[in-house]
TrEMBL record:
<dbReference type="InterPro" id="IPR003156">
    <property type="entry name" value="DHHA1_dom"/>
</dbReference>
<dbReference type="InterPro" id="IPR045864">
    <property type="entry name" value="aa-tRNA-synth_II/BPL/LPL"/>
</dbReference>
<dbReference type="GO" id="GO:0004813">
    <property type="term" value="F:alanine-tRNA ligase activity"/>
</dbReference>
<dbReference type="Pfam" id="PF02272">
    <property type="entry name" value="DHHA1"/>
</dbReference>
<dbReference type="InterPro" id="IPR018163">
    <property type="entry name" value="Thr/Ala-tRNA-synth_IIc_edit"/>
</dbReference>
<dbReference type="InterPro" id="IPR018165">
    <property type="entry name" value="Ala-tRNA-synth_IIc_core"/>
</dbReference>
<dbReference type="GO" id="GO:0005524">
    <property type="term" value="F:ATP binding"/>
</dbReference>
<dbReference type="Pfam" id="PF07973">
    <property type="entry name" value="tRNA_SAD"/>
</dbReference>
<dbReference type="GO" id="GO:0008270">
    <property type="term" value="F:zinc ion binding"/>
</dbReference>
<comment type="function">
    <text>Catalyzes the attachment of alanine to tRNA(Ala) in a two-step reaction: alanine is first activated by ATP to form Ala-AMP and then transferred to the acceptor end of tRNA(Ala). Also edits incorrectly charged Ser-tRNA(Ala) and Gly-tRNA(Ala) via its editing domain.</text>
</comment>
<keyword id="KW-0547">Nucleotide-binding</keyword>
<feature type="binding site">
    <location>
        <position position="585"/>
    </location>
    <ligand>
        <name>Zn(2+)</name>
    </ligand>
</feature>
<dbReference type="GO" id="GO:0000049">
    <property type="term" value="F:tRNA binding"/>
</dbReference>
<dbReference type="InterPro" id="IPR018162">
    <property type="entry name" value="Ala-tRNA-ligase_IIc_anticod-bd"/>
</dbReference>
<comment type="similarity">
    <text>Belongs to the class-II aminoacyl-tRNA synthetase family.</text>
</comment>
<dbReference type="InterPro" id="IPR023033">
    <property type="entry name" value="Ala_tRNA_ligase_euk/bac"/>
</dbReference>
<keyword id="KW-0820">tRNA-binding</keyword>
Length: 899
């Protein structure tokens, strides 16, 4: 049975039983706890928690799910996918355990010619939560399952929860026995390769609280109603019904394997397990990558972008390890589209974008592959030169961390050059890095967990934002927090230091940081029972996207919960903030006008007077492009376009061509900001000027890279832009006055000065060398006899370079004649440096006596803490410390005296 048919039968089964068919949500939902949607129930959480009233009592869906914790298992086991489709049925306070078991059982066991999947009931097993006797009885009564095929398991396996806080409940899982050829018997408890889990029925009845992991958390109490959440793994059912060995060989994934097998020098399923795993990784990961990009993610270095990057790099690496040298990602994306678009049309309609992003990542990785390979060659050569045969863990880690080299690639390359790799060292460094990442994640989670104190206010409803229309609003204090703990009152004289107090109001004109715009500053004042009170607002942040929390310093009086207060934005600040934000839209529009639609926004930040804007782009912008962006921006500002805002439906806004940030989840009703009709149209919740001319001049400061394929422009706007230009002008005027020329002649004057300086320095070098030669000639005349050798051991003043030293040593040696002779010259450091270069020459007669320049230079090096070497006739080196030069020369004489 084809996968599309499995999906269809599932939905039909439940629609016939009165369920509303709900489309899959995006894999990115607006939940800080969740990187990707990983279960069908995620989009229904507010219904389970009773926060929103569901439009139906029963629903069914097939949800796109991403799960990456087991990424290393992909291809190795028969059943792990990073992307899979979860078919589910949901009851919101309607049917409960009995209904869930009955529905699942009939679909699984009904014969195929009657719309079911036709599983042999004798092969099915169930697990239940430890004390769930009710589920055991129902499995026996409703499904006729014998007791020996029902197993009790603990919280880690049979208790589902989502979010902190979030819904939870005991679950019951259904397994299919694949037969003795897949392992020992004994049910799922004994062997999850032979007994494959296909369906999880969750009896969602409680709310979970704080705690970690799958089993260590507090259960806060019952939910308002008893619910059902089930999830059936479509790929696993397909694997079983299609009689293939593993999920990667099912009808929707196999085409990728076949495609790759047509290109790779080594085939699939020909007895090479490592190769087979690579094929399956490519099939699994390329599909996941297409889906994630389809929902708006671009490759990056953290969060979702990093997951995507890792998946794509594993694909590319696996292809390389299969011996494929040509680009392959474009073909893979097309294959995924062909298999998956019937269920997920966005893969076809958005194919160009998906393909472009995926292929760009391949190109980028192939580039780092090249520079990484150079680093590898250097490291391998250095390892061999030092006589070792093990590439260090640090090198392997740098290759992994900086160049994206998977360790397997490094291992293989090392083997080709006859080296091994210190894998233990590498894994140690990886573990350290993971530890750091974990600590980081824990810290973040903790910060989030603390938000529970605000929960009651979040539940009470969103803060009303009045700041689009007024800068001062009357409001009521709904909550006061000190260090994150709720208190009834806070007073100036309570000795609470700044920044620890937060006020939550029912309405506020103060903008909370979001959409790249930083928070407003302002004040909250009250005339409560105890007299005038004032708090300066230093920051405003949103909790759960809806509750505005003002961070304040109480400057006088006291604030009591329930007080009426006046919240006011600092008008000068707000004026600057609107210039910054509108300026950002103008730069964005100009960028796309100049660079085209591929310059997609990747992030932005604006505050009064300043903005920065990140966008996807390969390579630096040319000067001409930068200039043009600045010109287009300022011309549009100057055109004095009206700024219009309006609310509309998301779909309509997108149809109008409004620009939105990929990866951002937008609500159904969105706000549109339009500047100059078609010039700029963006989804945006920020505060803006009324007419574009109010932005004032926009000056681009520069353009830089902020990661692979992402560029950043920065700009000053308004008065800050003017101040910046005025400073530049003053700088130029200062230069002109020191150079005593008019401003426009400064460049020519500087060029002229630089050239004259170059000529003068050259002249200086020449005369320095002439002096040195004269000194050397004197030295030759004054050579002293040490034992049987005529020796010149001399310190050279005046910053003689190592190259000049070499030629001087030759001169002096020539002057010594054919008697045994040794020349050693040490140069004083040049100004600003401590380096002392030295050269030793030994003529043939002295070499016959057993002297070698290579040995003697080491004697100098010993005193000067330097290194050096060469041959018997000439050697050189460099040390440090002018103070030790005389001692070094004495040591040399003593060495020669020994004979
Ligand atoms: N939420 C449960 C799961 O993902 C059942 O849908 O397994």
């Amino acid at each position: 049975m084809q996968t599309h048919e499995i999906r269809k039968r599932f939905l039909d089964h439940f629609v016939t039983a009165g369920h509303a068919e709900v489309p899959s949500a995006s894999v990115i939902l607006d939940d800080p706890n969740l990187l990707f949607v990983n279960a069908g129930m995620v989009q229904f959480v507010p219904y389970f928690l009773g926060q929103q009233k569901p439009p139906w009592d029963r629903a069914t869906s097939v949800q796109k799910c991403i799960r990456t914790p087991d990424i290393d298992e992909v291809g190795i086991t028969t059943r792990h996918n990073t992307f899979f489709q979860m078919a589910g049925n949901f009851s919101f306070g309607d049917y409960f355990k009995k209904g869930a078991i009955e529905f699942a059982w009939t679909l699984l066991t009904n014969p195929q010619d009657q719309g079911g999947y036709g599983f042999d009931p004798e092969k099915l097993w169930a697990t239940v939560y430890l004390d769930d006797d009710e589920a055991i009885t129902l499995w026996q009564e409703v499904a006729g399952l014998p007791l020996e095929r029902i197993q009790r398991r603990g919280m880690a396996d049979n208790y589902w929860s989502m979010g902190i806080p979030g819904p939870c409940g005991p679950s019951s899982e259904i397994y299919v026995d694949r037969g003795p050829e897949y392992g020992v018997d004994g049910g799922p408890e004994a062997n999850e390769d032979r007994y494959i889990e296909i369906w999880n029925l969750v009896f969602m009845q409680n709310e979970r609280g704080e705690g970690t992991g799958k089993s260590d958390f507090e259960i806060l109490g019952p939910l308002p109603r008893q619910n059902i959440d089930t999830g059936m793994g479509v790929e696993r059912v397909a694997c079983l019904l299609q009689g293939v060995d593993n999920v990667y060989e099912t009808d929707l994934m196999r085409p990728v394997i076949d495609l790759v097998a047509g290109i790779a020098p080594r085939g699939y399923g020909v007895g090479n397990h490592a190769d087979d795993v690579r094929y399956r990784i490519i099939a699994d990961h390329s599909r996941t990558a297409a889906i994630i990009i389809g929902d708006g993610v671009s490759p990056g270095n953290d969060g979702r972008g990093y997951v995507l990057r890792r998946l794509l790099r594993r694909v590319i690496r696996s292809a390389k390890l299969l011996g494929i040298d040509t680009p392959i990602v474009g073909d893979l994306m097309a294959s995924v589209r062909d298999s998956m678009a019937p269920s997920y049309p966005e893969l076809a309609t958005d194919f160009d974008r998906i393909n472009r992003i995926a292929v760009a990542e391949e190109t980028a990785f192939n580039r780092t592959l090249a520079s990484g390979s150079r680093l590898f060659d250097d490291a391998a050569n250095a390892t061999k030169a030092s006589g070792a045969s093990v590439l260090s863990g640090t090198d392997a880690f740098t290759l992994h961390d900086t160049y994206g080299f998977p360790i397997e690639l490094t291992l293989e390359m090392a083997a080709e050059t006859g080296l091994t790799v210190d894998e233990e060292g590498f894994r140690g460094l990886m573990a350290e890095q993971r530890q750091r990442a974990k600590a980081d994640a824990a810290a973040r989670k903790h910060a989030h967990a603390d938000l529970s104190a605000y929960r009651e206010l979040v539940d009470a409803g969103p803060t009303e934002f009045t700041g689009f229309d007024e800068l001062t609003s009357e409001a009521t204090i709904l909550g006061i927090f000190v260090d994150g703990k709720r208190v009834p009152v806070v007073a100036h004289d309570a000795g609470i230091s700044a920044e620890r107090v937060e006020l939550v109001l029912d309405r506020t004109p103060l903008y909370a940081e979001s959409g790249g715009q930083i928070a407003d500053v302002g004040a909250i004042t009250g005339t409560g029972s105890s007299g005038a009170a004032r708090a300066a607002v230093t920051d405003v942040q949103k909790i759960a996207k809806t509750l505005f929390v003002h961070r304040v310093t109480v400057e006088s009086g006291e604030f009591v919960e329930g007080d009426t207060v006046v919240a006011a934005v600092d008008p000068t600040w707000r004026h600057g903030a609107t210039q910054g934000h509108s300026g950002t839209h103008m730069v964005h529009a100009a960028l796309r006008q100049v660079l085209g639609p591929n310059a997609v926004q990747a992030g932005s930040l604006n505050r009064p007077g300043y903005l920065r804007f990140d966008f996807n782009w390969q390579g630096a912008l040319s000067d001409a492009q930068r200039e043009q962006i600045e010109v287009v921006t300022n011309e549009a500002v100057q055109a004095d376009y009206a700024v219009n805002t309006m609310y509309t439906k998301l779909e309509k806004a997108k149809a109008m061509g409004a620009m939105a940030l990929f990866g951002e989840a937008y609500p159904e009703d969105v706000r549109l900001v339009e500047i100059g009709g078609p010039f700029s149209l963006e989804l945006c919740g920020g505060t803006h000027v009324h007419n574009s001319a109010q932005i004032g001049p926009v000056t681009l400061l520069g353009e830089s890279s902020v990661g692979s394929g992402v560029r950043r422009v920065e700009a000053y706007v308004g008065l800050d832009s003017f101040k910046y230009l005025a400073k530049e002008r003053a700088l130029l005027a200062g230069l002109a006055s020191s150079l005593k020329v008019p401003s426009d002649e400064v460049p020519a004057r500087v060029a002229n000065l630089v050239e004259r300086l170059r000529v003068a320095e050259k002249e200086l070098d020449r005369s320095r060398l002439a002096n040195a030669r004269a000194a050397a000639a004197n030295a030759a005349a004054g050579a002293e006899l040490v034992g049987r050798v005529r020796v010149v051991a001399q310190r050279m003043a005046g910053g003689v370079s190592a190259g000049d030293l070499r030629s001087l040593v030759g001169d002096v040696k020539g002057k010594l004649g054919s008697e045994p002779g040794v020349v050693a010259l040490v140069a004083d450091p040049v100004e600003g440096s401590d380096a002392v270069p030295y050269v030793v020459a030994v003529n043939p007669a002295a070499q016959d006596l057993g002297f070698s320049a290579n040995d003697l230079v080491k004697v100098l090096g010993a005193t000067l803490h330097g290194r050096g070497g060469g041959k018997a006739d000439l050697a050189q080196g460099s040390g440090s410390g002018a103070a030790h030069v005389d001692a070094a020369l004495s040591a040399l004489l003593a060495e020669i005296a020994k004979g």
